[in-house]
């Protein structure tokens, strides 16, 4: 086991652990902060998949954007949001069992798929050209977004504009009232 | 060299965790976080597979787009959740059930 | 060519003849209220003259048969036409002749009725359909007019429809006739199915299709058509049923006594002289259809009818009812005669009966009419048709009395009257018929003799009660005030009385064999036995005379004789063999019940089934909406029941909605997978 | 010509919709005018109708008369060719009589509409719409077009019953609607199935042409309804199943026992003119459909099920009559009598003999006229005193002699008094049924024998009613009030009643008026179904 | 790096060439921006200017699309999108939806009285329209997901647009959470598809080949996960749970839009996947069986549940689930035949569903009545409107003389054809269920005329005014009548 692997599995473990705490925690603030940990570990794992730009975006957008948005959301609103957590009395309800059952079932099916067959032996992976470690992925992404992915890229801008306009509309106060 | 399937398994776990949050959490924001987990699981898949797809760069591009879309989605969802809070004084999705048969 | 022209001319005449009364019907029904008498009389008179003229042209010559295409159905051409042969000529002259008389009579009899125009119109309709019935050349047409006759009878019986009994009686008459008509229709269907034609002359002529058909191996075969022999019998029974209903044969006779609710003139024309004879006429028309079984049935039913009606007539008090039963009895004779093959005798009796029964009724009508007026005059309320209320009218209504006596003499068959010839001929034939048959058949002639004597008894009872004994109600002085009716009415009686004499029919007062009617019609299956011809009339006449004397001593000499006590036989007879009660018990009540049941069935079962299915749909929808609403509960409960160890927590899961939706959705997805890949 | 006949009322309906409510009392005259024009046109068609065998129609397109054919929808839908829907009208001896009946009954119903006092605009436009649909059904030769007209009848009726009906109108309207829709929804599936099986020999397109559907040669090999392939659906011959579906659809309209329970409710709750149309025309659509579609397109299946159809006919006759006997409401009684009378139609058709089918046709026309008359008469009483209980009336003949005369005509004609059309019709239905065993062996003779008992029961309930309501001493539940309200027939009512009476009488005495016109068609029809 | 250089110039050329075919999308983008700007600066002075502008833009797009009707299939942007006849038809449909929707917004009381103005809504609409256009054209999974998200996000915004009361915010919350979950699941499915094939091009050979080599379980799982996202848009079973709640809570125009636009776009996507599946060569019977099951369950659930609804919008929501099931039947066509019956049905469906919601809304505006049992006597008071309503409901039931019948008829024809060629009994059962559900739908649709006409009003006279919405619904109802006589008006373009 080399260093790369150690680091990878460390982040993987961190990722899953923090994610588990996020979803089991009854404290929203703790939840959100651990969410940051999860996202960060995920970004680290992206690096192992040679997607450094994605990792960067992940950190910037998610950690910097989404998370801050979430925090702002309940900071802007009432503090009661924080208190609106479920009471700690009951540990588990049937709902949780069903939830656990469903997620485990999905996990089971997915693991079934991923372990049964080695996907690195897929035709296209064997024949394709993998990204080498010293390649500048930012270049690649830049060229691709200006050629193949030009149209989605432009549309994405319209999309964001729409989301902006809409979210702003929802959030802003009614002038008449 | 990390085997591809390990990425995928991590993604699957994350997906399931997200699913659990979605189904059980009593706070809309936590549900939203669950959804983000699910999306991130997918992004992880994209990234993992994208490693082998240099020419089209589909995986990484898709991951990039997905992140942006998810962020926008969160923005809208949060705006809506705030609105809901204004009316209901709660964001427990299981308590918001005025609309029913 | 000349023949065709002649037949065309004769047919035209006959059509004009039948259309005249129809014309009076149409004109009068749309005309003004209260009128129409003159027109009706004129038309029927012309019709009568035409019929006489036709008789003079065609009688005993080749029949005239003239037809036109009526309609085409499939490949079968239906024709409509007239068939003028001896039988139809006899009928039309009889019908039109008696109609003329009744019309004349009615002018006085019905004078004061406010709705008299309807009366004339209905009479016109009746005459039209009866005449048309007589000359129609095909079974469908006959059936058409057959029912139309019934319909006009319905109208006339119900003429005073405000009287409950009248409308009841009219309905009963029509429905009972309907029963017979169904048989008739069935007969038509069978004949049509076998021969594809309904033309009488083609079917029943000398070399008609009917004679060409044979019965072999229980099959009735005509050309390539074969059906089971039983259908021939059924056809015969069918036609006979028609005749039974119309001619008031047991057990379909009960309408006729009730039909007396109509005006008496109507009773005399329709329910005594003409329409009721149509049954016999029909039997005569389709005679070849009847196979031995049906003929025997005819004998049986005719005899029963004759006997039964005679016994019932013994105890009735309503004058018209007595006469009605007498009519039934006489019709029984005719039908029986047809059954034994005494075709000509039957028709002969039909003819003579027409006159004397008409006379009886008209005479009775005169009495009723006068009594009715008298009642109105003195303002007393009594049943003016009850013979117990009458009495001693011999002096005050001499003409009526004598006419009635003559008619009664004819009825009981005293020598020198017309019916002596015809009735005795029938009884003689009955003896002849029975001669070579089994023991059971031997009863028949004696039964007929007995019936004949019963006739004597009831008609004498009537005569004596009406004309001789003292009235139960009116004093002698009051009776004196009642007079013979107006001239018009009495003339009619006189004319009819004339027709009750032997001379009209035969030169020889004691033998019917040479009467002109007997000569032109055939008889079947009867071996002549001279002995009977000489002995039986003598015995009959002797018995008759004895009975007259006996009844005179019973009814006139003994003042308060009420028939035969109040024994079981009396009640049986008085209540008309309880047949009405029986019918209402067995049929009417059951049909009503059946209809109630079937309506209940309709409402409660069939409709409910539909409603139930609607309910089912609603239930289904309820379930499905319940599932939709509570699917989560259901599924959660199901999973919960997997983990029932944990217990009742399952019930506390109705908290959230959105997540329930998602859970359900995902559960469905997973179960889809599990079902597809892991099971 | 036929289009004009069909769309004239539609145009009038639109006109009425446009016209202001101010002149709503004139709407009835517009409607009357339209129906009069229709009647005259239909008479014109009648007199110019060629009844020779070369114009028999039935299964030969060239033999139809007044044909109008426009291509309508051409859609490339399936694998095997184009969808061919035509605007295809034409009449033969089977449909022509119904045109006259429709025009006449509509005319009478319009006259009966005088009693309608509310929402005249809506009423008359729906009424005219209904008229369009009914005539369209009788003229359409394209199945698609037929179906459209067929369904189009439902809606106006739903509202006509539902809005202007009696107390239980909601129930009746819904029940009627659901019943008939139930039949027709599945009919639609059969129609589509037929379309896939049949192709136009000229251009190979799949077609909705009913006439082409009658020729087995036009069925593609192996298609669902191909006679040769004899496919199975749910363990049954596909053709038989299709026949049954179609038969149920139409026999709900007829109606047969046990699918009849909508009829008493609908008839009783409907306002008089609608009852007239229902009984006079709608029921006929069922019979017409059975002849034109069920039997013509699926003769083989029809022959297989003839015995059952005959049995249903007999049961309907007896059952309807028995139920009529139990009724206390005059209108209900007449409604049940319709069930009974339409049973003869079924019996006649099932016999598959020319006599039986002629009888059935005549019965439909005759019942159309007579039931219209009966309902009109009931409506007259109801309009005057708002009561129809038989027990509440007695001795009406005294105070309403002319009315009684009409009632008697209608009753006696209905119970099959010879001289009226119903007699001929019932007699020939029975004769046909009786002959059937001999001719084609389809129906046993006892059916005819049993059915003839229905005639007796018919006499029983009609005469009983007559006696109870019209004869006897005058006694009314409403006393003097009713006495003053029960006026005798007025001029308008006479105008409505007389033509019906004349029609019934004329067809009874001269059935050739009808038989001659349709004989060739009936022969062709018999030949079609027996081969 | 170097290996990309040859592609760049060709890619730019391709982009330039492709732009010519995207006129309508460009117009939409331009319009989107213009509307935002106008709303920012002129909303006070010219309150209806953004409405007029949006109308103009949609009309321009409509005419542009008509010119593209007879186009041969064009692969644009290097396979990112494909413009073919079917997608042009869908785009025309969207124009129709948008046009009615715009008018609906313009005359809807609650939206017009909304304090924050309607300008943003018009902008969102145009963006969503753009998204729908791209949805039907896209042949790349990325493009597809992007456009689906665009439509979804726009829809969330629309549903929560007013959020003046709890109902609307609740609806929007449910919608956004449900929708996000669905799209997250779909995204995961897409990621799997991508991973298994290495390609995002739906019709690309490598994509198909990659799927062909897959074992059943991963293939079906990934496809099912993708289907979740599509079915969410279609509101098909089992993703229909949100429908009643959201439809009831959303503003009427938005409900009308949701029940038509995104749903139709969803069908376009579904068709893409069906074609893909056929190309992969999965036993078509299996797919058809699954589709038929979904269709049956949707019809049964939608129709049966609709019977019990009293709220008219909720009832229409359930009925629209039923209609989805019904439209599924039109998917049962053999390869290469086009989806004429489906498109025809959709045209009619748009018209009648929009009209139904228009009328509901108008009734609500005029009488404040939302429940069916309160409609009694309305037939008299709102006569023209109710006549139109009856026509629309008859059409929704699928009875003559309305175009709903023709549409239903075509769909039945298609399904029977499919049965004819496949002989699958599931299809036959589906057809029979469809026929029965027509009957059942009568129950609930006709509750409205039953109340409106057959029952007398209990409350006082309502002064009816004839509003633009009445005219609009009358026009739509008239279209329904016209189209049964002249179905060729639509049919000629198919």
Shape of chain D: globular
Please bin the fraction of helical residues of chain C. over 70%
Order of helices and strands of chain D: HHEEHHHHHEHEEHHHHHHHHHHHHH
Most residues in contact: chain pair: A-B, 84 and 73 residues
Number of domains of chain D: 1
Radius of gyration of chain D: 22 Å
- Give the low-pLDDT segments of chain C: 624-656
What would you say this structure looks like, in words?
The complex is a heteropentamer of chains A (177), B (101), C (679), D (531) and E (494). With 101 residues, chain B is an all-alpha fold. Chain B contains 3 helices and no strands. Chain B is elongated and about 50 Å long. Chain C is mainly alpha-helical and 679 residues long. Helices cover 71% and strands 4% of the residues of chain C. Chain C contains 26 helices and 5 strands. A 3-stranded antiparallel beta sheet of chain C has the order 3-4-5. In chain C, a hairpin with a 2-residue loop joins strand 1 and strand 2. In chain C, helix 5 runs antiparallel to helix 6 and helix 19 packs parallel to helix 23. The N and C termini of chain C lie far apart (99 Å). With 531 residues, chain D is mostly helical. In chain D, 69% of the residues lie in helices and 5% in strands. Chain D is built from 21 helices and 5 strands. In chain D, the strands form 2 sheets. Chain D has a 3-stranded mixed beta sheet. Chain D has a two-stranded antiparallel sheet with strand order 4-5. In chain D, strand 4 and strand 5 form a beta hairpin. Chain D is globular and about 75 Å long. Chain E has a domain of 212 residues. Helices cover 76% and strands 1% of the residues of chain E. Chain E contains 22 helices and 2 strands. A two-stranded antiparallel sheet of chain E has the order 1-2.
Could you name the key traits of this structure?
heteropentamer, C: 679 residues, mainly alpha, three-stranded antiparallel sheet, two-stranded antiparallel sheet, 26 helices, 5 strands, 71% helix, 4% strand, globular, D: 531 residues, three-stranded mixed sheet
Topology:
The complex is a heteropentamer of chains A (177), B (101), C (679), D (531) and E (494).
Chain C: H1 2-30, H2 37-58, E1 64-73, E2 76-84, H3 86-109, H4 116-135, H5 139-157, H6 164-195, H7 200-204, H8 209-212, E3 214-216, E4 219-222, E5 225-228, H9 229-246, H10 255-258, H11 264-273, H12 277-285, H13 292-313, H14 319-340, H15 343-378, H16 393-396, H17 398-412, H18 418-435, H19 439-468, H20 476-481, H21 487-498, H22 516-520, H23 530-557, H24 568-574, H25 579-642, H26 658-677
Antiparallel strand pairs in C: 1-2, 3-4, 4-5
Helix pairs in contact in C: 1-2, 1-4, 2-3, 3-4, 3-11, 3-15, 3-21, 4-5, 5-6, 6-9, 9-12, 11-14, 11-15, 12-14, 12-15, 13-14, 13-19, 14-15, 14-18, 14-19, 15-17, 15-18, 15-21, 17-19, 17-21, 18-19, 18-23, 19-23
Chain D: H1 2-18, H2 27-47, E1 65-76, E2 82-91, H3 96-112, H4 120-139, H5 143-152, H6 154-164, H7 169-197, E3 206-207, H8 210-213, E4 232-233, E5 236-237, H9 238-253, H10 262-269, H11 272-297, H12 299-325, H13 330-351, H14 354-385, H15 396-399, H16 401-414, H17 421-439, H18 445-470, H19 479-485, H20 491-509, H21 512-530
Parallel strand pairs in D: 2-3
Antiparallel strand pairs in D: 1-2, 4-5
Chain E: H1 5-19, H2 23-42, H3 49-67, E1 74-76, E2 81-83, H4 85-107, H5 109-112, H6 119-137, H7 141-159, H8 166-197, H9 205-212, H10 216-234, H11 242-249, H12 252-280, H13 284-307, H14 312-329, H15 340-367, H16 378-381, H17 383-397, H18 403-422, H19 425-445, H20 447-454, H21 468-485, H22 488-491
Antiparallel strand pairs in E: 1-2
């Amino acid at each position: 086991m080399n260093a790369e692997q150690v680091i990878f599995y460390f982040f993987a473990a961190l990722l899953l652990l923090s994610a588990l705490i996020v979803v089991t925690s009854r404290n929203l603030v703790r939840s959100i902060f651990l969410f940051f940990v999860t996202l960060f570990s995920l970004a680290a794992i992206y690096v192992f998949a040679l997607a450094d730009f994605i990792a960067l975006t992940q950190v910037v957008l998610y950690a910097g954007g989404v998370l801050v948005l979430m925090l702002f959301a309940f900071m802007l609103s009432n503090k009661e949001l924080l208190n609106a957590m479920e009471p700690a009395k009951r540990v588990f309800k049937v709902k949780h069992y069903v939830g656990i059952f469903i997620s485990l079932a999905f996990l089971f099916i997915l693991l079934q798929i991923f372990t049964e067959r080695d996907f690195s032996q897929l035709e296209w992976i064997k024949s394709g050209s993998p990204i080498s470690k010293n390649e500048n992925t930012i270049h690649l992404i830049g060229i691709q977004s200006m050629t193949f992915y030009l149209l989605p890229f432009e549309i994405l801008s319209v999309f964001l504009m729409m989301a902006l306009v809409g979210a702003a509309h929802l959030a802003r106060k009614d002038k008449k009232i | 060299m990390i085997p591809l399937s390990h990425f995928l398994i991590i993604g699957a776990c994350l997906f399931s965790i997200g699913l659990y949050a979605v189904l059980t959490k009593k706070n809309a924001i936590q549900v939203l976080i669950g959804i983000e987990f699910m999306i991130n699981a997918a992004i992880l898949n994209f990234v993992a597979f994208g490693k082998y797809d240099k020419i089209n760069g589909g995986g990484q591009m898709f991951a990039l787009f997905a992140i942006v879309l998810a962020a926008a989605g969160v923005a809208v969802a949060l705006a809506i959740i705030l609105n809901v809070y204004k009316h209901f004084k709660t964001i427990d999705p299981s308590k918001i059930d005025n609309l029913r048969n | 060519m000349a023949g065709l022209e002649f037949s065309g001319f004769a047919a035209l005449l006959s059509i004009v003849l039948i259309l005249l009364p129809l014309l009076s019907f149409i004109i009068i029904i749309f005309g003004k209220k209260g009128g129409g008498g003159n027109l009706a009389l004129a038309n029927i008179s012309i019709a009568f003259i035409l019929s006489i003229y036709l008789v003079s042209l065609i009688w005993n010559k080749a029949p005239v048969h003239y037809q036109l295409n009526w309609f085409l159905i499939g490949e079968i051409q239906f024709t409509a036409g007239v068939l003028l042969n001896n039988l139809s000529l006899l009928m039309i002259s009889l019908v039109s002749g008696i109609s003329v008389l009744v019309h004349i009579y009615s002018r006085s009899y019905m004078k004061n009725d406010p709705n008299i125009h309807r009366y004339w119109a209905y009479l016109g309709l009746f005459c039209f359909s009866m005449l048309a019935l007589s000359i129609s050349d095909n079974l469908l047409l006959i059936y058409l007019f057959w029912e139309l006759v019934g319909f006009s009878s319905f109208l006339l019986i119900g003429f005073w429809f405000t009287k409950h009994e009248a409308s009841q009686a009219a309905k009963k008459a029509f429905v009972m006739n309907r029963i017979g008509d169904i048989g008739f229709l069935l007969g038509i269907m069978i004949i049509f199915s076998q021969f594809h034609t309904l033309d009488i002359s083609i079917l029943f002529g000398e070399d008609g299709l009917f004679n060409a058909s044979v019965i072999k191996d229980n099959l009735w075969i005509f050309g390539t058509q074969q059906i089971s022999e039983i259908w021939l019998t059924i056809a015969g029974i069918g036609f006979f049923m028609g005749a039974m209903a119309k001619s008031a044969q047991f057990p379909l006779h009960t309408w006729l006594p009730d039909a007396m609710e109509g005006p008496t003139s109507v009773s005399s024309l329709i329910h005594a002289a003409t329409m009721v004879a149509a049954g016999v006429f029909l039997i005569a028309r389709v005679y070849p259809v009847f196979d031995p079984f049906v003929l025997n049935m005819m004998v049986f039913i005719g005899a029963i009818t004759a006997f039964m009606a005679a016994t019932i007539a013994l105890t009735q008090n309503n004058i018209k009812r007595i006469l009605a039963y007498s009519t039934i009895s006489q019709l029984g004779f005719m039908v029986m005669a047809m059954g034994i093959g005494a075709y000509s005798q039957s028709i002969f009796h039909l003819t003579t009966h027409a006159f004397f029964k008409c006379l009886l009724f008209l005479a009775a009508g005169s009495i009723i009419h006068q009594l009715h007026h008298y009642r109105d005059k003195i303002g007393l309320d009594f049943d003016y048709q009850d013979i117990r209320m009458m009495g001693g009218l011999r002096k005050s209504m001499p003409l009526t009395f004598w006419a009635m006596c003559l008619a009664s003499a004819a009825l009981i068959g005293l020598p020198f009257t017309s019916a002596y010839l015809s009735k005795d001929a029938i009884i003689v034939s009955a003896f002849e018929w029975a001669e070579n048959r089994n023991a059971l058949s031997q009863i028949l002639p004696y039964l007929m003799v007995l019936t004949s004597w019963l006739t004597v008894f009831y008609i004498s009872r009537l005569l004596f009660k009406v004309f001789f004994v003292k009235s139960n109600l009116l004093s002698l002085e009051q009776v004196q005030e009642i007079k013979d009716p107006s001239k018009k009415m009495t003339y009619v009686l006189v004319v009819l009385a004339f027709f009750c004499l032997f001379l009209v029919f035969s030169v020889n007062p004691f033998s019917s064999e040479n009467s002109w009617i007997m000569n032109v019609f055939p008889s079947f299956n009867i071996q002549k036995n001279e002995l009977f011809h000489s002995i039986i009339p003598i015995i009959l006449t002797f018995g008759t005379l004895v009975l007259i004397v006996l009844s005179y001593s019973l009814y006139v000499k003994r003042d308060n004789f009420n028939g035969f006590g109040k024994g079981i036989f009396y009640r049986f007879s008085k209540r008309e063999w309880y047949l009405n009660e029986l019918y209402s018990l067995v049929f009417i009540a059951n049909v009503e019940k059946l209809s109630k049941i079937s309506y209940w069935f309709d409402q409660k079962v069939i409709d409910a089934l539909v409603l139930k299915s609607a309910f089912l749909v609603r239930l289904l929808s309820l379930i499905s909406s319940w599932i939709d609403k509570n699917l989560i509960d259901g599924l959660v409960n199901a999973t919960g029941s997997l983990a029932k160890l944990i217990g009742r927590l399952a019930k506390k899961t109705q908290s959230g909605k959105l997540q329930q939706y998602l859970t359900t959705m995902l559960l469905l997805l997973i179960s889809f997978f599990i079902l597809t890949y892991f099971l | 010509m036929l289009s004009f006949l069909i769309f004239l009322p539609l145009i009038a309906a639109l006109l009425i919709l446009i016209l202001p409510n101010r002149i709503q009392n004139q709407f009835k005259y517009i409607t009357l005018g339209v129906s009069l024009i229709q009647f005259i046109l239909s008479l014109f068609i009648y007199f110019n109708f060629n009844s020779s065998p070369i114009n028999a129609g039935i299964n030969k397109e060239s033999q139809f008369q007044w044909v109008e054919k426009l291509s309508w929808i051409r859609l490339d839908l399936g694998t095997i060719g184009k969808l061919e829907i035509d605007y295809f009208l034409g009449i033969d001896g089977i449909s022509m009589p119904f045109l006259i009946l429709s025009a006449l009954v509509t005319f009478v119903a319009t006259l009966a509409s005088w009693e309608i006092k509310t929402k005249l605009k809506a009423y008359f436009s729906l009424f005219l719409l209904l008229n369009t649909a009914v005539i369209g059904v009788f003229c359409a030769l394209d199945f698609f077009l037929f179906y459209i007209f067929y369904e189009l009848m439902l809606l106006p009726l739903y509202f006509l019953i539902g809005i202007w009906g009696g107390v239980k109108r909601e129930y009746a309207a819904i029940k009627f609607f659901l019943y008939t829709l139930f039949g027709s929804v599945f009919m639609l599936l059969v129609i589509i199935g037929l379309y896939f099986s049949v192709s136009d020999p000229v251009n190979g397109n799949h077609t909705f042409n009913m006439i082409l559907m009658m020729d087995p040669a036009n069925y593609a090999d192996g298609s669902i309804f191909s006679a040769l392939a004899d496919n199975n659906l749910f363990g049954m011959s596909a053709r038989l199943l299709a026949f049954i579906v179609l038969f149920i659809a139409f026999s709900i309209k007829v109606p047969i026992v046990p699918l009849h329970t909508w009829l008493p409710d609908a008839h009783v709750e409907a306002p008089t003119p609608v009852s007239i149309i229902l009984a006079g025309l709608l029921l006929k659509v069922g019979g017409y459909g059975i002849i034109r579609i069920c039997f013509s397109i699926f003769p083989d299946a029809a022959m297989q099920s003839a015995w059952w159809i005959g049995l249903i006919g007999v049961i309907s006759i007896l059952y309807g009559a028995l139920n009529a006997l139990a009724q206390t409401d005059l209108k209900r009684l007449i409604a049940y009598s319709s069930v009974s009378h339409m049973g003869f139609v079924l019996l006649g058709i099932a016999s598959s003999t020319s006599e039986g089918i002629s009888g059935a046709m005549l019965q439909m026309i005759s019942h159309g006229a007579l039931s219209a008359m009966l309902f009109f008469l009931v409506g007259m009483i109801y309009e005057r005193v708002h009561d129809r209980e038989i027990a509440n009336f007695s001795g009406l003949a005294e105070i309403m002699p002319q009315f009684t005369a009409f009632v008697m005509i209608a009753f006696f004609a209905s119970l099959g008094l010879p001289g009226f059309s119903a007699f001929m019709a019932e007699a020939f239905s029975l004769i046909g049924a009786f002959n059937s065993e001999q001719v084609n062996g389809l129906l046993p003779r006892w059916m005819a024998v049993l059915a003839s008992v229905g005639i007796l029961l018919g006499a029983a309930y009609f005469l009983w009613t007559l006696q109870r309501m019209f004869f006897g001493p005058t006694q009314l539940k409403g006393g003097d009030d009713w006495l003053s309200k029960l006026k005798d027939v007025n001029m308008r009512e006479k105008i409505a009643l007389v033509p019906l009476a004349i029609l019934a009488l004329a067809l009874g005495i001269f059935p050739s008026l009808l038989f001659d016109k349709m004989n060739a068609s009936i022969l062709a029809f018999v030949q079609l179904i027996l081969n | 790096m170097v290996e990309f250089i040859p592609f760049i110039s060709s890619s730019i050329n391709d982009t330039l060439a492709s732009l010519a075919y995207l006129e309508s999308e460009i117009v939409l983008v331009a319009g989107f921006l213009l509307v935002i700007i106008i709303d920012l600066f002129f909303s006070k002075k010219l309150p209806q200017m953004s409405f007029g502008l949006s109308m103009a833009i949609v009309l321009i797009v409509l005419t542009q699309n008509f010119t593209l009707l007879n186009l041969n299939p064009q692969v644009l942007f290097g396979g990112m999108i494909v413009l073919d006849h079917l997608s042009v038809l869908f785009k025309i449909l969207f124009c129709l939806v948008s046009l009615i929707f715009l008018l609906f917004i313009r005359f809807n009381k609650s939206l017009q009285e909304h304090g924050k103005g309607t300008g943003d809504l018009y902008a969102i609409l145009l963006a969503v329209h753009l998204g729908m256009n791209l949805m039907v054209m896209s042949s790349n999974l990325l493009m597809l997901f992007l456009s689906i998200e665009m439509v979804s996000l726009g829809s969330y915004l629309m549903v929560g647009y007013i959020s003046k009361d709890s109902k609307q915010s609740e609806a929007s919350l449910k919608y956004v959470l449900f929708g996000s979950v669905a799209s997250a699941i779909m995204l995961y499915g897409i990621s799997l598809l991508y991973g298994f094939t290495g390609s995002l091009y739906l019709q690309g050979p490598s994509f198909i080949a990659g799927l062909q080599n897959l074992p059943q379980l991963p293939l079906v799982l990934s496809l099912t996960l993708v289907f979740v996202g599509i079915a969410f848009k279609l509101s098909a079973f089992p993703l229909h749970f949100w429908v009643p709640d959201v439809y009831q809570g959303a503003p009427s125009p938005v409900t009308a839009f949701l029940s038509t636009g995104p749903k139709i776009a969803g069908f376009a996507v579904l068709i893409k996947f069906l074609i893909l599946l056929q190309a992969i060569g999965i036993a078509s019977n299996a797919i058809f069986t699954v589709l038929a099951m979904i269709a049956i369950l949707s019809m049964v659930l939608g129709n049966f549940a609709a019977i019990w609804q009293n709220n008219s919008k909720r009832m229409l929501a359930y009925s629209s689930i039923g209609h989805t099931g019904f439209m599924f039947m039109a998917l049962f066509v053999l390869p290469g035949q086009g989806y004429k019956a489906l498109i025809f049905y959709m045209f009619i469906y748009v018209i009648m569903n929009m009209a139904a919601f228009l009328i509901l809304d108008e009734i609500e505006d005029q009488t404040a009545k939302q429940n069916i049992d309160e409609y009694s006597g309305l037939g008299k008071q709102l006569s023209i409107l109710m006549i139109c309503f009856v026509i629309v409901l008859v059409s929704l039931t699928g009875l003559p003389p309305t175009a709903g019948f023709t549409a239903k008829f075509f769909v039945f024809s298609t399904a029977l054809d499919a049965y004819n060629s496949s002989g699958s009994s599931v299809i036959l059962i589906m057809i029979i269920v469809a026929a029965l559900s027509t009957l059942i739908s009568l129950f609930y649709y006709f509750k409205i005329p039953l109340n409106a006409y057959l029952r007398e009003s209990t409350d006082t006279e309502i002064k009816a005014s004839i509003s633009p919405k009445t005219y609009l619904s009358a026009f739509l109802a008239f279209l329904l009548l016209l189209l049964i006589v002249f179905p060729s008006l639509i049919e000629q373009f198919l």
